[in-house]
TrEMBL record:
Family annotation (Pfam families): LGT
Species this protein is from: Pedobacter ureilyticus
UniProt entry keywords in alphabetical sequence: Cell membrane, Membrane, Transferase, Transmembrane, Transmembrane helix
Family under the similarity heading: Belongs to the Lgt family.
Enzyme class: transferase
Transmembrane helix as UniProt keyword: yes
Listed transmembrane segments: 20-39, 101-124, 186-207, 291-310, 316-337, 358-375
EC number(s) from the headed UniProt entry: 2.5.1.145
Protein name: Prolipoprotein diacylglyceryl transferase
GO molecular function, one term: phosphatidylglycerol-prolipoprotein diacylglyceryl transferase activity
Length: 384
């Protein structure tokens, strides 16, 4: 397992390079990059077809930097300097436990003040370069794909919050024992929570800029599936706890690699299992029994589904239908994986189920309704 990028480099090249990057975080970032690409390509395609239209905005140019801009830039610079200089001055601690360093109140006051001053000065000088004797209002054109930067930022913020909220609801007993730690920890993220809250933020921004919800949902289907597949690679490589139940069964095929059938997740970041003899450091546990490596199964399924959605996207022209197909595939894929995945179960009226199974079922039904509605009202939706 590779809990950090340093572990991965050591495995590949046999050299120790102390870096403060955890593997899961890197793949989350790569997932956003992958999603950004897929979303942008679809927005450009739909814009070229005339389905999505640019919007006009009136903005004022030539104004000096406002007090609010200077203050916000100063606060941003202070935060970066406060943490960055402290992290560099305590680099060994930062490498060993970057999360604690970033989320603690410790920092370098002088570094924060210096960076704050630099950010304020930079903001002031940039505005001075374009300042006019008399500021004027101009009309600008914003194309759909140009919204992606703000969409990604808001999707990341609200997606993280949603993922944490849903995870803490799913593991309520653990959460009430340490609510602050549960909210601030970067581990323990529920995909559907991130999907729902992050998706809502994206839809809001799109709607504000003239993109109708069904069109934005259709744009997002393939991209979300690609991002999910990339993110699950990080889950597997880091061993974040999203594995399956014990698998002591013999391999069905001799050619199948052991790690693809049953795996013990040594050095997992979840800290689960028994201590590894001779191992020194934070990530020194290994599961006592091999389990189904469900993240890998989801990677394979997600990438195959993305490939299929990407192939059919030019042929599915009824608004809402592409997203409906995505929801149905996503619901079936996750529901099947839940059958062999470790997760908290709820019991209602004698029926046991996991949070993900319930949401998967809801998503599949919602997808089926979207597809049915699209087919039923295709003439009406053609002008949507």
């Amino acid at each position: 397992m590779f809990p950090t990028v340093s572990h991965f480099i050591s495995y590949l090249f046999g050299i120790e390079v102390p870096l403060p990057f955890n593997t899961f975080g890197v793949f989350v970032a790569l997932a956003f990059v992958a999603g950004y690409w897929a979303f942008s390509e679809e927005l450009k395609r739909k814009e070229a077809l005339g389905i999505l239209k640019p919007v006009k905005r009136i903005t004022t140019i030539g104004e000096p930097a406002s007090i609010g801009e200077l203050i916000s830039n100063g606060l941003f610079g202070f935060l970066i300097g406060y943490k960055l200089i402290y992290a560099l001055a305590n680099y060994k601690l930062f490498v060993a436990d970057s999360q604690t360093v970033l989320l603690s109140t410790k920092g370098n006051l002088l570094g924060g003040l210096v960076l704050a001053a630099l950010f304020v000065y930079w903001s002031y000088k940039e505005k001075e370069k374009v300042k006019l004797p008399t500021p004027k209002k101009v009309e600008i054109t914003i194309r759909p794909h140009e919204l992606m930067s703000s969409m990604v930022v808001w999707a990341a913020v609200w997606g993280f919050l949603g993922a944490k909220i849903f995870d803490n609801l799913e593991h309520w007993d653990t959460f009430i024992q340490d609510p602050i730690g549960g909210l601030l920890s970067f581990s323990g993220l529920t995909f559907y929570g991130g999907l729902i809250c992050g998706g809502a933020a994206v839809l809001y921004i799109a709607y504000k800029n003239g993109i109708k919800p069904l069109h934005m949902l259709d744009v997002g289907g393939p991209g979300m599936m690609l991002a999910y597949g990339v993110g699950r690679i990080g889950c597997h490589l880091s061993g974040d706890g999203d594995w399956g139940i014990d698998n002591l069964n013999p391999k069905p095929f001799n050619w199948l690699p052991d790690w693809l059938w049953a795996y013990t997740y040594p050095n997992n970041v979840a800290g689960e299992g028994n201590p590894i003899p001779g191992c020194v450091g934070r990530f020194c546990n290994e599961l006592p029994n091999p389990v189904y490596p469900t993240p890998i199964y989801e990677v394979i399924a997600a990438l195959l589904i993305f490939w299929f959605l990407w192939k059919i996207r030019t042929k599915v022209n009824i608004p809402g239908m592409m997203f409906g197909i995505y929801l149905m595939f996503s619901g079936v894929e996750r529901f099947l994986v839940e059958l062999i995945r470790v997760n908290s179960k709820y019991t209602v009226a004698g029926i046991s189920f996991t949070q993900a199974e319930l949401i998967s079922l809801i998503l599949f039904i919602a997808g089926a309704l979207l597809v049915s509605n699209a087919l039923k009202n295709k003439d009406k939706l053609a002008s949507y």
